[in-house]
Amino acid sequence: MAFATIMMLVILGIALAIIAIVAIGMQGNPRPANSPKVRKAMASTAKHLNGEAPPPPGLVTFFGDLRIKSASSGVENTGEQPKVS
Question: What is the phi/psi pair of residue 43, to 5°?
């Protein structure tokens, strides 16, 4: 029971942190007191979420490795969902 309570508090804390970040982001331009690193990270994250930025090289390499592994397994995987009739 105690574990469930602790996990619920952790989840609640994460949710509140996300809500705070979104609320700060909705207020427009960040204040000059904010760190330039934070501004750069937030701008980069926004571009990635909007699909405007290219994917990170590590992610491209990761998915490339997955394709190589799936090709060597002999199983054809086109990435499409199976059709249900």
Answer: -65, -40
